[in-house]
Amino acid sequence: MARLKHESISRTIGSGVKLLQHIHQQNTPLHYIELKVIEMNPGSRLQETLKKQEVCIVALTGKITVTNGTQTFNEIGTRTNVFEKIPTDSVYIPIEEEFELEAVTQATVVLCYSPTEKKQTTVLIKASDNTVEHRGIYQNKRLVHNILPDSSTIADRLLVVEVFTDGGNWSSYPPHKHDQDNLPKESLLEETYYHEMNPRQGFVFQRVYTDDRLLDETMTVENGEVVVVPKGYHPVGVPDGYDSYYLNVMAGPTRKWQFHNDPDHEWILNRK
After folding, report:
1. What's in the keyword line of the UniProt record (predicted)?
2. Which of 38, 82, 136, 143 shows its CA 20 to 30 Å from the CA of 194?
3. Residues lower than pLDDT 70 in the chain
4. CATH for 5-270, options being 3.30.2130.30, 1.10.275.10, 2.60.120.10, 1.25.40.10
5. Do residues 239 and 169 make contact, with C-beta atoms less than 8 angstroms apart?
């Protein structure tokens, strides 16, 4: 099993562009997800040509302009820090297209890829298009921004969501999994978690484990790190005094989020 926690690599990939994270098939057990986190200086540019991959470009912080040659989305992005807790803009681009990013301000961008054969349509996903949810009770509360939920028809494979969890709370809890292609009971979706903390020196704990415990790893995760979930349950615990943000990317053979709770811990949903 490849390591499940990936630290920032901070490697320059162009003038004014740093690659902070690159998750792909060669350094993880994943088959359906590739992820890049990049930092861009004002005026810097990044160009890519997609093959049989779709991509969701998330303007995590700062403002960027995105063009695919026929459409240009100018100065998208709504926040300077994710902990402003407001939705941001994203762009979906289908397979076999070229695109260019230009940083209008200092910006951090997440590129979420998944392999597919299906040709969709380029779409600007405005911040106002995100559905916002408050999930959980007691110490299981979190704020959710749905960028590409499974109810959306924009993408063929990708699901993308942001989650904010206040200090002293748990998230992705009770522990749940989605690693069986067994619909309607459960779907097979790989997942990645890109984490940020407020204040930045904070940390969270994330456990990834399977029923048979052949995979069972508990990680201390710090700001800017990525946790890979090829299978199994994957709860996150946030210490008091620090708030947690993570960007989830999920993808699999069927674009449906149908999860299965760990039966040992499902009882907490019935508390009064």
Report:
1. Isomerase
2. 136
3. 1-2
4. 2.60.120.10
5. no
CB 57 within 8 A of CB 93: yes
DSSP assignment of 112-131 equals: EEEE-S-----EEE-GGGSE
Mean pLDDT of the chain: 96
Q: Are 208 and 232 in contact (CB under 8 A)?
A: yes
How do the residues of the chain divide into helix, strand and coil, expressed in percent and rounded to 5?
5, 50, 45
CA distance 179 to 182: 9
How confident is the model over 60-110, as pLDDT tens digits? 999 999 999 899 999 999 999 999 999 999 999 999 999 999 999 999 999
Given a contact cutoff of 8 angstroms between Cβ atoms, the answer to whether 58 and 112 are in contact is: yes
Q: What pLDDT score does 1 carry?
A: 46
CA neighbours closer than 13 Å in the CB half-sphere of residue 225: 21
The answer to whether the CB of 116 falls within 8 A of the CB of 95 is: yes
**Amino acid code (one letter) for 173:** Y
